[in-house]
Amino acid sequence: MTSVTDTTQSLLGALAGLRVVDLTGVVLGPYATQILGDYGADVIKIEPPGGDIMRQAGPMKHLGMGHIFINTNRNKRSVVLDLRQAEQREALLALCDTADVLTYNIRPASMARLGLSFEALHARNPRLVVCGAYGYSEGGPYSDWPAYDDLIQGAACIPWLMTQSGSHEPRYVPATFADRVTGLHMVHAVLAAVIARYRTGVGQHVEVPMFECLLQFVLGEHLGGETWQPPIAPMGHSRMLAANRKPYATQDGHICALMYTDKHWQSFLRLIGQPELFTTDPRFGTQSQRIAHIDALYGFVGEHMRTRTSAQWLQDLAQHDIPVMPMMKLDDLLTDPHLTATEGWLDIPHPHEGLLRQLRPPVRMTNTPTGVWRPAPTLGQHTQEVLREIGR
Predict the structure, then answer these.
(1) Averaged over 307-315, what is the pLDDT?
(2) Which structural domain range is residue 269 located in?
């Protein structure tokens, strides 16, 4: 693994010179602002005296430095401010006077009660981009409802879709899927607003609602026949919902394989000694026929996959240019040969936590590198440093 910790290198990042005041907590907002920090932005994380709640999510070596916090808050400086106190709220406003972006993930009414409405912030710094990420867009009956990842997954039909694709009961995706999907939308929304400000000289308020962002992902496939008015077919995408769309069981494990094109299917049928099926079985001849019979086709492949070991199938399918991949377990990633070859893992020395394992930022640029400039901060680590920078 490669070790990277040089804060001066952040000055080479694509977003060097962009200052982000980050009021977000938990996962959604911190994930987004970490990405901005990976691109070189100066991200100043404002935390209440008790800190971001994710500091307490174990495992951890030291109180307040839980693993999820560490893995979602690198490349940031931590400043502790109690925004219920007038003097400390004024310090935040003074910091916003120097900033390009302010991010938050509480409801706008709560921001207004703190004296931090967009109107108040815009009056002080007309160039400030203010980005709010919260559960539901303003103006609807859900607008004031609390929102967490599980709830938004439910609202966007994901547990129900699990039952339609063969699960015995509704299930959430076992990751903070809604938070991180919305976080990615938050990143590009902030950057779009900053680019617009370069043209107009004026900042704006940006709304990034979890519900609507996740629906963009889900309905990209599952709007189906309702794409047309009047509808021409039911909602849902048959390939995504096929009960047999899952890793294939082999003699000794599982693999992931996909026979998608005509060439893939012809190659697979030759491999199993039944090439004639491509022309004699109406399920195999065209893409549209295969989609119409997709669950049966997955079942057909599954029967044959049980006849060989995973290693045999990985070799045979690859030799026939059929897309295939092992079904990885979490531990496999630690020794994955691709991540090793591409230096995907980094060793990050932390002054409080010791040596940390981090994934390298996935996006790489030739002239403005991404990187891990700072490990996740301890609570309030940079309070005095940042306040001195604004003369307080």
Answers:
(1) 97
(2) 248-326
